[in-house]
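Researcher: Let's try something more involved. This one mixes different molecule types, so please make sure each is placed in the same coordinate frame as the others.
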Amino acid sequence: MTKIGSPAVCNRRRFVVAAAAATAVAVLPNLPALAQDQPEAKPWDALVKKILGDAKPVEGKLTIDMAEIAENGNTVPFTVAVDSPMSDKDYVKAIHLISTANPRPEVVVFRFTPAAGVAKAESRLRLVSTQDVIAIAELSDGKFLMTRRPVKVTVGGCGG
Amino acid sequence: MQNPRVKLPEKAKPGEVIQVKTLISHVMETGQRKDADGKTIPRKIINSFSAKFEGQDVFSAEMFPGISANPYLSFFFKVPGPGEFEFTWVEDGGARVVQKEKLNVVA
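Model: All components are placed in one shared frame. Result:
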């Protein structure tokens, strides 16, 4: 039986990543300089670009409500909300929640209709380690809102 | 995927915005874990949820392995009048659970 969220699995994964990075640096001494010129594209970064396309998101009106310190990364309650009239002409179509450190950046996409009355939703997510989470809201007029906030994780959820 | 639970207010008035809370039992296997033999346990999660009221879309969610086991989802709804909700959860592989709940609307 594998224990859910076993710390050994977390540590092993981190160790493998660290070891691979160390080997790469040792074999290719010029790599750090190269890496500076072309920063490694993070999966969450690619996802943010995919959602936004060419649009420039603005800050404000979108909030992520969650504990500053999550004791158990297996289940971290959160609320996302946009201050919106939710009328037929002006409403929030979707809110995406993105992790910057989990094995997969996508967490959830909430899709709203004006029938919701309020653009607000709650759930619980897994967080492998201390990180930032990002929310992006897609509005009915084609504009985007974006916000991010840090969360400290005491015991990581380790993707399950 | 079993035991879907939905919490609606006991009474709601037309025009009022109510909170709808849902919960369902599911392991939400991420596809990242390995068993004792080192083999990857295949991903099996509930990947989507939707809520309709009298056949009209209200709210939906696309879920990924980052959502915790026994997924809890809550959203809001502006009551247009009496009617019935239909909630649907869909698992990887296509299995689905549908739950219907009447909303008690008082004038």
